[in-house]
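Write out the 3D structure for:
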Amino acid sequence: MVVTSQKITGTKLALIEAASTLFAEKGFEVVSVREITGLAGANVASVKYHFGSREGLMDAVVARMATPVNEERLRRLEELEDRRSATARDLLTAFFEPLLSQIKSSPLSEKLFVKLMGRVVGDRPYEFPNEVMGQFREVAGRFVPAFMAACPGLTSEDVFWRIHFSFGVLSNTLTHGELVKKISGGKVGDEDLATTLNRVIDFCEAGFQR
């Protein structure tokens, strides 16, 4: 397991948490360095000192979201590999549940974390940082053959697409969950994230087994 997270403290942590909150509330494009440092209680020069630039701070925000999730994905996959009998559902659970755990443990509220995730996936104005792309490639490199073993007949291309579709289902569910409640006219009510995640896994499992 190569993916590793680093302990961040002090002003650097305060800047990341302030930026996370503001990016979630307003989006990446409109938040200024002065707003971030004001919320963090730091001076403007601290962003350059700790991150090199505003873009470097954005990268740090994304890495802080993604790294613990990817670490946990690989840990869970290792456990499944030891069992040698993983199903598509087992693998989808190992892939998705770490995101739920990160939402629950984040200093951001559930609502803000989900908003930030939606902005990272859909509104980010440039490529993911190399650190995070490397993590995603490592996770994919481990999960794709595991899905191929669990679903005989699927090619690696099939699996990449189905993981992509599955993540799209989860991302849309988390970021636009309120929409289905409004459209349903009350037929869909509030439920905890774990229940919603099970619905997502049910749907994606059927897609993998098609």
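The CA atoms of residues 76 and 94 lie 6 Å apart.
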